[in-house]
Amino acid sequence: MDQTAKIALGSIVVGVAVLALKTVAYLLTGSVALYSDAAESVVNVAAAVAAFVAVRLSAAPPDSNHPYGHHKAEYLSAVTEGVLIVVAAAAIFNEAYRAFLDPRPLELTPLGIGANLAASAINAVWCLLLLRRGRTLRSPALVADGKHLMTDVVSSIGVLIGIGAAVWTGKAWLDPAIACLVAVNVLWSGFQLVRASVGGLMDEAADDATVARIKSVIAANADGAIEAHDLRTRQAGRLTFVDFHLVVPRDLRVAEAHDICDRIERALHDDDADTIVTIHVEPDEKAKHAGIIVL
Questions:
Q1: How many of the other CB atoms lie within 10 Å of CB of 293?
Q2: What pLDDT is recorded for position 46?
Q3: Which of 20, 34, 35, 39 is the most exposed place for a label (fewest CB within 10 A)?
Q4: Same CATH fold, 208-293 and 3-201?
Q5: Closest CA to 54 of 143, 147, 187, 149
Q6: Tens digit of each residue's pLDDT (9 = 90 or more) over 103-148
Q7: What pLDDT score does 67 carry?
Q8: How much is the average pLDDT of 211-219?
Q9: Residues 37-63: b if buried by 16+ CB within 10 A, e if exposed
């Protein structure tokens, strides 16, 4: 099991522990807002399981049916998480509506509030680890899980503030109102997750900084060629696919052109080990006098 999979498995353990704490907090207080917090944690557990499965699947080597590998499986995990978030938001809205119709007295026991605070602290630490390691390992599933947990932490803080206001003012309707705000926040996080994942599934290009770095590496290592044009990039999990046309003098031998291509591929791989390069060699009459100028 690689490092990414181990972290994803850790998310399941953390998610179950946080769910247990938040459920205790809800049962001890009867707060609809804390119910909404616990409902979001159910999604966290389901999403962590989906992320673990996706990470394990994405690590599978290429095969005859998937010659480019299985890296996009992580994007499917993030999409699944977005759908689950919508389901959780619907459950929260339903519970809040029932609480508006039939307000319930709150019992803010120290144990209940303490359980929720402990759960929030665990989530905060774990989400920071997920974001940091997910970006380092270039794992969309881990980053998506971390962003969702960050939303959960913010929601939990808002819930505790709202409950305190409800008790202090004696206005019971503030409890379900805060729950509705949590649901809106949950929906927004789900939208952002799905939006980012769809970009990966639709072969979205690498970001501008990455493309600029790729162009610089090509220009610095294509000595003997004339130009490189029609550069294209796409992301698939941690992999960056790069392809372009390399124009060389028409009298250049095939072996010499191949050496140039090898040099460029090595340089791109040294810059980022997760880069997959495809180069189409063309004679000088195909030059467009645009694109990447060879240094």
A1: 14
A2: 77
A3: 20
A4: no
A5: 143
A6: 766 666 788 888 888 988 998 999 899 888 888 877 777 777 787 7
A7: 82
A8: 94
A9: bbbbbbbbbbbbbbbbbbbbebbeeee
Beta 227-236 vs 239-248: how paired, if at all?
Answer: antiparallel
CATH superfamily name and code, 208-293: Cation efflux protein, cytoplasmic domain (3.30.70.1350)
pLDDT for residue 105: 66
**Structural tokens at position 227:** 């130009």
Residues in the chain: 295
Amino acid present at 267: A
The domain limits of the chain are 3-201, 208-293
Distance separating alpha carbons of residues 37 and 35, to the nearest angstrom:
5
User: Whole-angstrom Cα distance, residue 274 to residue 83?
Assistant: 30
User: pLDDT of 140-179, one tens digit each?
Assistant: 777 777 877 787 787 777 777 777 777 777 777 777 787 7
The dotted CATH code for 3-201 is 1.20.1510.10
Q: Which residues make Cβ contacts (< 8 Å) with residue 203, sequence separation at least 6? A: 234, 235, 236
Question: What is the structure's pLDDT at 137?
Answer: 79
How many other CB atoms sit within 10 Å of the CB of residue 181?
A: 18
Where do we find the tokens 């005859």?
A: 64
Q: Per residue, what are the HEC states of the chain? A: CCHHHHHHHHHHHHHHHHHHHHHHHHHHHCCHHHHHHHHHHHHHHHHHHHHHHHHHHHCCCCCCCCCCCCCCHHHHHHHHHHHHHHHHHHHHHHHHHHHHHCCCCCCCCHHHHHHHHHHHHHHHHHHHHHHHHHHHHCCHHHHHHHHHHHHHHHHHHHHHHHHHHHHHHCCCCHHHHHHHHHHHHHHHHHHHHHHHHHHHHCCCCCCHHHHHHHHHHHHHHCECECEEEEEEEEEECCEEEEEEEEEECCCCCHHHHHHHHHHHHHHHHHHCCCEEEEEEEEEHHHCCCCCEECC
